[in-house]
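Q: C-alpha cells for this one, please.
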Amino acid sequence: MALTDKKAVTNARYQAKLDRIVLQPLKEEGAAIRAAAALAGDSVQGYCLSAIREKMQRGSEPNEKAENK
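A: Here is the predicted structure, written as C-alpha cells:
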C-alpha cells in the first residue's frame, strides 16, 4: 500500500526529529540482547533505550568501580 502524500510529509517531519545511533554487538551478544528484550516484553530498541536511561540516571551517583579501587 503506497503512502499518501500527506502521510509521507508527516513521516518525514517525524523522522527529522530522530537521531540515529547504531549498535553492532557480536552475533552472540546480539542474540542475548534480543532474548532479554523479548523476555521483558520489549522491542530491542525499547529495551536498549530503557537500559541507557537507567544508566544515565545512575551517572550522577558514585561509580561502584571507582569505590572499589
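A few notes: DSSP finds four helices and no strands in the chain. Residues 59 and 66 are 12 Å apart (CA to CA).
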